[in-house]
Amino acid sequence: MTQGLFISFEGIDGAGKSSHIEALAAAFRAQGRAVTVSREPGGTPLAEKLRDMVLHEPMDALTESLLIFAARRDHLRCVIEPALARGDVVLCDRFTDATFAYQGAGRGFDAKVLSILELMVQTGIAPEADLMREPDLTVWFDLAPEVAAERLAGARVPDRFEAQPLEFFRRVAQGYADRAAAAPRRFVRLDAAQSRDRVWQQLFSVFTAKGWLK
Ligand code: TMP
Question: How many degrees, rounded to 5, is the angle at CA 138 between CA 145 and CA 47?
Answer without folding.
Answer: 85
